[in-house]
């Protein structure tokens, strides 16, 4: 029995099946944890999402920014753009069930003392904090006002957490940090313009996992989202987006021994 954690599939269903074959994945014994961005940019978002939903006894996922964007287009007032490739999901016969299922998914999974998240965790948040703040977002995602909530979440501000933020502002910061962050300041102030490797941080910022004050230094954190990350040698930090959609690799890490398996895409 093994847990495999898989980075950004982004609708590359054929690569996913190829990878599962490579690890001899068993639907009877093994589990897959998807680290978000299961849909969009690739050509089989529908098949990917349907696969996850069909095997929920053996699969779990956290929401990534592309998954969230799909929800915002489906339920909120956000318009798909011409790079989006998830019209197969929106037009599917069972779209309603698939999208409701997607809206039920968490932002963070805490499994065997490890945390799984799409983008990262602000340096000044401990485990209790990240779990509480992500649950608050999940509560709204499961509410009657889902569409209104999703529409209101589309904004880069506030870029810093303050205790006096409104509940919706708190959710917006949490979503932006957990689903979109790459670089931030030690106090968790977010920056969204830079997307290159961690050694090319904008002035005053560092990769979220490189801050000295980080409270979760001893916790394994598995994440996706940052396909340009390379040569990270930080203990307990496992970047798993290996750029499948950009002609790179799709990878799974086995949680028990941290062995990485990859297929070319
Ligand atoms: Mn992403």
UniProtKB/TrEMBL annotation:
Alphabetical keyword list: Hydrolase
Enzyme class: hydrolase
Listed GO MF terms: bis(5'-nucleosyl)-tetraphosphatase (symmetrical) activity
InterPro entries in alphabetical order: ApaH, Calcineurin-like_PHP, Metallo-depent_PP-like
UniProt KW Hydrolase keyword: yes
Coiled coil: none
UniProt keyword Translocase, yes or no: no
EC numbers: 3.6.1.41
Catalytic activity line of the entry: P(1),P(4)-bis(5'-adenosyl) tetraphosphate + H2O = 2 ADP + 2 H(+)
Limits of the Calcineurin-like phosphoesterase domain: 5-159
Gene3D superfamilies found in the cross-reference section: 3.60.21.10
Function: Hydrolyzes diadenosine 5',5'''-P1,P4-tetraphosphate to yield ADP.
Homology family: Belongs to the Ap4A hydrolase family.
The protein, known as: bis(5'-nucleosyl)-tetraphosphatase (symmetrical)
């Amino acid at each position: 029995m093994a847990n495999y954690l898989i980075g950004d599939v982004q609708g590359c269903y054929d690569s996913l099946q190829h990878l599962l074959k490579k690890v001899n994945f068993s639907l009877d014994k093994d589990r897959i944890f998807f680290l978000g961005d299961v849909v969009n940019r690739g050509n089989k978002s529908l098949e990917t999402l349907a696969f996850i939903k069909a095997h929920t006894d053996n699969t779990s996922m956290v929401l990534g920014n592309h998954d969230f964007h799909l929800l915002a287009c489906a339920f909120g007032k956000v318009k798909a753009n011409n790079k989006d490739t998830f019209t197969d999901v929106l037009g599917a016969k069972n779209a309603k069930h698939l999208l409701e299922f997607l809206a039920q998914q968490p932002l963070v999974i805490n499994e065997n003392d490890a945390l799984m998240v799409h983008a990262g965790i602000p340096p000044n948040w401990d485990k209790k904090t990240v779990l509480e703040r992500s649950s608050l977002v999940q509560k709204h995602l499961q509410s009657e006002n889902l569409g209104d909530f999703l529409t209101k979440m589309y904004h880069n501000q506030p870029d810093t957490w303050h205790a006096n933020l409104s509940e919706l502002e708190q959710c917006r910061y949490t979503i932006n940090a957990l689903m979109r962050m790459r670089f931030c300041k030690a106090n968790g102030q977010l920056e969204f313009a830079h997307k290159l490797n961690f050694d090319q941080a904008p002035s005053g910022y560092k990769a979220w996992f490189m801050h000295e004050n980080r409270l979760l230094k001893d916790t394994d954190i598995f994440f996706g989202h940052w396909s340009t990350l390379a040569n990270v040698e930080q203990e307990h930090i496992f970047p798993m987006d290996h750029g499948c959609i950009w002609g790179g690799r799709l990878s799974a890490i086995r949680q028990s021994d941290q062995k990485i398996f990859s297929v070319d895409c």
